[in-house]
Each structure stands twice: as structure tokens, then as C-alpha cells.
Amino acid sequence: MHSLNDMRKQFQDALEESRKHTRVVIGLGTCGIAAGGDKIWHEVSRYIETHRLEVEMMSTGCIGMCYAEPLMEVHMPGEPRFIYGNLTPEAAVDILKLHLSEGKPSPEYIVAQDPRSFEAAANITRLDETPFYKRQTKNILGRCGIIDPEQIVHYIALDGYAALEKVLSAMSPIQVIEEISRSGLRGRGGGGFPTGRKWEAAYHSPGNKKYVVCNADEGDPGAFMDRSVLEGDPHELLEGMAICGYAIGADEGYIYVRAEYPLAINRLKKAIRDAESMGILGDNILGSGFNFRVQIAAGAGAFVCGEETALMHSIEGKRGMPRVRPPYPAQSGLWGKPTNINNVETYANVPGIIRQGADQFAAMGTENSKGSKVFALTGKINRTGLAEVPIGISLRDIVFDIGGGIQNHKKYKAVQIGGPSGGCIPENLLDTPVDYDSLLQLGAMMGSGGLVVMDEDTCMVDVARYFLHFTQEESCGKCAPCREGTMRMLQILEKICDGKGTPQDLDTLESLCRVVKTTSLCGLGQSAPNPVLATLRYFRSEYEAHIYDKKCHAGVCTELLDITINADKCKGCTVCVDVCPTGAIKGERKKPHVIDPAVCIKCQACMVKCKFGAISRG
User: Fold this and answer.
1) Of 235, 256, 387, 473, which one has the fewest beta carbons inside 10 Å?
2) How far apart are CA 499 and CA 594, in angstroms?
3) Which conformational region is residue 461 in: left (phi greater than 0), alpha (psi within -120 to 50 degrees), or beta?
4) Which of 146, 115, 110 is nearest to 129 (CA)?
5) What is the signed CA dihedral for 559, 562, 565, 568, rounded to 10 degrees?
């Protein structure tokens, strides 16, 4: 069998040689581009070309610090590598000029010093010692933000495809499955089913044709974990899928990725082409006799296609709707053939487990939840971004140590974990370890890893309404419990938010939740009640305030607001009159104003503009 060792050594030498030259690295994942990274790339490259400078430029994926995007790393030979954040194109060029002319960094923009630096710079924190990274463990995100994701040579130089080479040369399919089982890896996309058991079922299913499918249809609001892996290290996914194909006896794979991820799709396509051109994918991989090809299927944005049977129907060209199980995909999946389905993060864990051994992976995490987990930190949190942490870390550590706490010094209220299928966890449960079993006991779930933080200005009834509105709209309508039950639940929540709720509505809501949860056809319907049940469990007083007191103390549900002007504080400046869209505010200049409640639409624009704190909501 052909070996990658000589090629890897050659690529490693080339990378080491490139580090002897001045290099600029710019983060061009979706987050970086959205923050202006492409403009920085354009200005810096134009400056280098105009002045004919010997500077190497490289793009990379997201390193996780989305809150500091756009990011740029500058490395001069023999000097530490400095990472700069919150840049403008002009600032990026000025930083490079200072480095090149005087060999000095620009402290006002420095985020951290790259830990790969040859020597430490005084008074500058290493990247792995910053509060955001100190508690993290980089397993699958280890190359993201370090390599150019469009250069297969970078991946190979950093032990890429070594695991595939190992299984093809020294392991039988059942030995691979046993190693995955021994690691304790559980599916990272939902309920956490043991990966080894899933692979074993597909392995034992009879048939000459089998498929490997990757669920990259990341549809949860606020989730971007899989997208960042696809954009930052696409070969890691391809290697994991190829290993799975070898283990279960499949020669073909599909990546079902949402069409709203154009950058991820383009980088995947290039990764597949490059791997095929080097004999790492395709026929007779590395001379082993094993064949494996990968195709991309673009999803149209239907959340229900995250459910595995609906996903397979979509790949087959049918309407994405779930079906009754059994049979499970391992027995009858894509086109009726045995199929293994995992998500991006699950497959991305596989090369490291094979390369380093199951014991190293199993040493991290809890007894029933091994390894690390990637979370997308969003919402009212100071440090938004991507964090990979050991399973078992507490929610408090994630939100306050890694995420930096709540924005604008507000009070923490809840964190929604697991997306629309998850639940809201209050402050008194922040010390709960983040693992599959502990979260289920709280009425939440790990899910794919979306983590939305909410502050004191959040109305939990409105949160339940938001997530239920999402799942109700995304329901495929095939089964009555989900189709009709979620709609009726949403109607009740809207009624409560409008100040028309009754005590009986809470009983009806809880009863509907139980019915929808236990009788729906697929996971979308079965988990749709989770945000409602969790908010009723932990924030019932807010529901009661909406019903009994007709008050939304967070000031979110506009129908329950009473906008008033304090005559003692009003200066009669008329600013509120100018911004009121309905003419509800009346009064003479330099005299107290009043609001006509019959005309006021409670948009609160007057509150925002009032400089004297004279306008309040009750």
C-alpha cells in the first residue's frame, strides 16, 4: 500500500520553511468575512503588491474568537506571532507597516500572542492563556484558524489522513468499530446515540451496497459549529467519513449541507477534488483496494431535513418528510440500502480517536459522556464565538469564564441549550455539568451545540413563543400531533403574550405538550414542547404575571405595556413628539407631555430617545 509519510515529511519541511518569512494570516471564515475580513485581505494584499514586499499571505477559517473579528496574524522571522482583532482595513495596513519598518507590534489591537511563537513577548497574553481559550480543549478544532482550509498539503502536514492510512494498512473493519465503541464517542448532533453501536449495526446489515451520510444541515437558530468545521478544516470530515465507509463496507458517501452555506460548500468541493487527485479518495485509495467517493447534496433550508429519514428522502429527490422507524437507516436507509448517518462533529472526532487511540479520548469527559463538545456561544454574552470544551464542564464556566459573562453588566436569566429542541436553564442550575444525562434531567438536551444566553430583559414566555413559532413553521405536517398540536400551543402562547391568557390555558398547554411529545412521528415534533415545558418548569411566575397581573416585567410583550410620562421629570423638549410614529404624544414646549394610550402602539421609541428618564413602561 502507498504511504503518505514521505509526502507528509515534504509538506512539513515546506511549512517550516515558510515560517522563516514574514507572513500575514487573515481569518476568512463566514464570521470573518461578515465582519470585514475580505476588505482587510484586499487592502493588505494591495499594499504588499504595490510595494513589492516579500510577505506571504494566507487565509484561514474561524479560530473561534468571533467577538474580535476581523482577525489578522502577523509573524516575522524570529519574532512572536501576534494576533490582532477588531480591525479596519486601514488599521491592518498600519500594523503591517510598523512590523516591517520597525519590527514592533501595535498593542492597541493585539488580542493575544499565538502559542506557536518561538518566544514570548512581554506583557502579551498567549492565545491559549486568554480567558476565552484557557478552559478549552482543542480536539476537532485544533487545525481551524491555523491551516489554509483550501490547501490539502497543510492538512496532511499536520497528521491529516494518517488515521485513514492506519486503518487501511493495519486494522480490520471490526477493529475500527471496536475502537470507536471503546472511545465512548456519542453522536454530537442530537440525542447522543453511541456511535460505535450505530456503525456496528450498519456493518452487520447484509448487502453489497451501503452508504455513509453526513448530516450538515445545521438548522438550529444561533448554531454555527458544523459550518466552522466545514469552512476551517473540511478534510477532517472527509477522513472521518472515509474511515466509516471502510468500517461498515460502504463505497459512497453524501454530505447533506444547507445551501445557505456557500463558502462551506465551495471548500468541501475543492477538498474532495484535491483528495481524489492525490489518491486519498476515489478508487483504490492509497493502493489498498478500498474505494470511497463523496458527493455533496445541498439542502433547501427545511429544518425537518435534519431528521435522518427526512434527510435521506431529500437526497433521493423526494419531499423531505420523516417516516416511521423501524426499519432504521442501518438496515434500510438511502435508496433502501444500509446507511450510517452522523453529523459533522461526530465524523470529525473519528480521525483523532484512531490516530491517538480510544483511551486518550475516553479519558476526557464523564462516565457516560466522553470527549469534548463544540458550542456556539451567542446571545447576550460578551465573548460570542466557538468554544470546544471537555464534556462535564459546568454551564457557569462556559458562560462566565469562557464567554465573559453578560453584556452591559446585566443579570443572567437563562441559557437555551440544544436549539428549538432544547430547554432554558435558570441561574440556580448553572453549576450543572454539561453532559448528555445531566441536561436531559433538566428538561434540556445537548443537541448540536447551540448555546443562546439571555439576560434580565428577556421574557421567557416570549422565548417559548419564539422557539415554538420556529418549530411550528418548520413542521412538515405529516403527522397530526405535530401539525395541529404545535399550532394550538402557539396560539395559547400568543394569547398569553397578548394579555388574554387564563389560568386554564396553563393546564391546556401542559397537556398539549405531553401529547405532542409522546405521539409525534419524528424528533422535531417530539422535542418541540421542550422550550415550553422548561420555561413552565423554571419560570412559571412569568406566565402567571402575564395571566393574573397582565404584566410583562421584562417589557417585551407590547400588549402588556403601559407607557407613561412622569410629569415631574418631563422637560417638554418635544423629542418624544418628533419620534412618535402615531402622534400619540401631545404637549406644549417646556411643559410636561402626555401619551394617549388609545393611539400609542407601544414601540418605545420615545423611551429610547428621552434623555431625562421621564418615560417608563409598566
Assistant:
1) 473
2) 24
3) alpha
4) 115
5) -160
Position 402 pLDDT exceeds 80: yes
Pull the grid cell for residue 316.
433521493
Q: pTM of the full predicted structure?
A: 0.93
Q: 3-class secondary structure for 518-565?
A: HHCCCHHHHHCCHHHHHHHHHCHHHHHHHHHHCCCCCCCCHHHCCEEE
Given a contact cutoff of 8 angstroms between Cβ atoms, the answer to whether 554 and 456 are in contact is yes
Confidence of residue 120 (pLDDT cuts 50, 70, 90): very low
Task: Please say whether the beta carbons of 73 and 147 come within 8 A.
Answer: no
pLDDT digits (tens, 9 = 90+) for 203-260: 999 999 999 999 999 888 888 999 999 999 999 999 999 999 999 999 999 999 999 9
pLDDT in tens, 78-101: 777 889 999 999 999 999 999 998
The count of other CB atoms within 10 Å of the CB of residue 5 is 10
In the block, residue with C-alpha cell 463566514: 30
Give the C-alpha separation, 550 to 491, whole Å.
17
Instruction: Give the C-alpha separation, 577 to 541, whole Å.
Output: 36
Residue 57's DSSP bridge partners are 24
Mean pLDDT of all residues in the chain? 93
SS (H, E, C) 316-367: CCCCCCCCCCCCCCCCCCHHHCCEEEEEHHHHHHHHHHHHHCHHHHHCCECC
Burial of 38 from C-beta contacts in 10 A (0-12 / 13-18 / 19+): middle
257 sits in which H/E element: strand 252-258
- What is the C-alpha separation between 197 and 462, in angstroms, rounded? 40
pLDDT per residue as tens digits for the range 313-350: 999 999 999 999 899 999 999 999 999 999 999 999 99
Q: What gap in Å lies between CA 338 and CA 212, rounded to an integer? A: 9
